[in-house]
Amino acid sequence: MTCTHCGDDAITMSYTLRCTPAGRDARVIELHLCTDCLRSLCTEDDIELVEDSQFVTA
Q1: What is the dihedral of CA 30, 48, 54, 37, to 10 degrees?
Q2: Where is 42: in which H helix or E strand?
Q3: How far apart are CA 30 and CA 28, in angstroms?
Q4: Are 37 and 29 in contact (CB under 8 A)?
Q5: Which of 10, 12, 29, 44 ranks highest by number of CB atoms within 10 Å?
Q6: 6 and 39 Cβ atoms separated by less than 8 Å
Q7: Which sign does the torsion angle of CA 53, 58, 39, 27 carry?
Q8: Residue 56 belongs to what H/E stretch?
Q9: 10-58 residue pLDDT tens
Q10: pTM as predicted
Q11: Contact, 52 vs 14, CB < 8 A?
Q12: Are 56 and 9 in contact (CB under 8 A)?
C-alpha cells in the first residue's frame, strides 16, 4: 500500500497518531506510513503515536 505521507509504494503499516497543534484541539488520525515517515512524524513535538496495526504490503 502507498504511504499516505510521502506517496512511496513501500511496505507500510496502519498507525493512529494524535496531533496536538498549539492553540488548537487535538485530532486523532489514522495513516498508512512507511518506516521513514513514521520516524520523521514522531520527532515532531505535536505528534504522538497512539496505536499501530498490522503490516500492509505494496
Answers
A1: 80
A2: helix 35-42
A3: 7
A4: no
A5: 12
A6: no
A7: negative
A8: strand 47-56
A9: 888 999 999 998 888 999 999 999 999 999 998 999 999 987 655 455 5
A10: 0.75
A11: yes
A12: no
